[in-house]
Amino acid sequence: MTFPIQKTDAEWQQHLQAKGAEPVAYQVTRHAATERPFTGKYEQHWADGSYHCICCGAKLFDADTKFDAGCGWPSFSQAVPGAIKEITDYSHHMVRTETVCSQCGAHLGHVFPDGPAPTGLRYCMNSASLDFQDLAPDAQP
Ligand SMILES: [Zn+2]
Q: What's this model's pTM, rounded to 2 decimal places?
């Protein structure tokens, strides 16, 4: 699978460092690592705004689709249409659906079919893959 945004590992490492991303962000997004549960900065983060790819800045989720799944990672019931690509993941003796950023291929987490209505989906994400942005001042009600 190829993505519109291509960088080498070294370039991503440098880019994430320059952005002030968490140290674990590089391993999570470029090498599909998983942060420890209940440690991510967005696990219990409920402000209004949107969540973007830490690597390329593409918008992935609206804050109003975030819910508390109790699983230890930030969870969302719906992704921004087209923002995420799904890949079947056979690692760890399981069949899961990996989710990556459709712009840059960053590993985000997995999606499971046990989420709330109406989508029935649970996007189980790594905080380190996400960059929260407040609502823009002109978008405030
Ligand atoms: Zn991205």
A: 0.93
Contact 100, 53 (CB under 8 A): no
The stretches of the chain forming alpha helices (DSSP H) are 9-19, 25-31
In this predicted model, what pLDDT tens digit does every residue of 34-74 receive, in sequence order?
999 999 999 999 999 999 999 999 999 999 999 999 999 99
Catalytic-labelled residue, pool 53, 56, 104, 124: 124
- How far apart (Å, rounded) are the C-alpha atoms in residues 31 and 33? 6
| Residue 11 alpha carbon to ligand 1 centre in Å | 14
* Class of the domain covering 9-134: mainly beta
Residue 89: predicted pLDDT? 96
More confident residue, 136 or 132: 132
Q: What is the DSSP string of 25-41?
A: HHHHHHH---PPTT-ST
**What residue segments make up the domains of the chain, in order of their start?**
9-134
* Å from CA of 59 to ligand 1 middle: 8
